Amino acid sequence: VKVKIPFGNKYLDAIFSVPEKKSTYGVILTHGAGGDMNFPHLVSLAAYLASHGVLCLRFTCKGLNIAYRTKAFKTVVEYLKLSDDYKLSGVFLAGRSMGSRAAASVVRHLSQEDDDDFIQGLVCLSYPLHRPKLQSKLRDEDLLFIRCPVLFISGSADEMCEKQLLEGVASKMKAPQKIHWIDKANHGMAVKGRTTDDVMEEINAQVFSWLRENIELEHK
């Protein structure tokens, strides 16, 4: 279902992937610095989640300013929260690369502002922890303040997220977190000798099983 979400004096293009049965939880998903919501990895993940009973709303926000991207993501969260068509108990925020930084920023700010538990967790695909070859400056400030569960899926050869550095940040986090490494994948999740579909199957299954665990924990 295509929708246009009001954002200031503009609109954000977005698409709902809707499961057959009514979903109580949803995922909001956005893209990295390049591309848009039709980036193949996002389309694949959204379709997988919907086919497994989880509503997925993915949106496009062009713009390389992280504050602007964060503001847009926040608007989409509010839109879904107030939606009459899809009454959800909670959402997980997810993004790829720069989109995951925006998602982390929103989770941090919203959790400090309201205690209504609408945001259940954060999924970071290829989180850009540092610029290539600039490991001294880590983009970890939002991650250290988050309290809800966080899943990282990163390539072990990601030039923007060195393995030891992410593991170091994870060990300092207050939030329950899990890292799944895609062996030999780069920042774009490409792996020599594996097809994109094969890699996406691994990513999608990891995201879904982690969501399911966290939704079950919530219900206990």
Automatic annotation (TrEMBL):
InterPro entries the record matches: AB_hydrolase_fold, KANL3/Tex30_Abhydrolase, NSL3/Tex30
Pfam families the record matches: Abhydrolase_11
The KANL3/Tex30 alpha/beta hydrolase-like domain sits at 27-209
Q: Which domain of life is it from?
A: Eukaryota
The identity of this protein, by name, is TEX30 protein
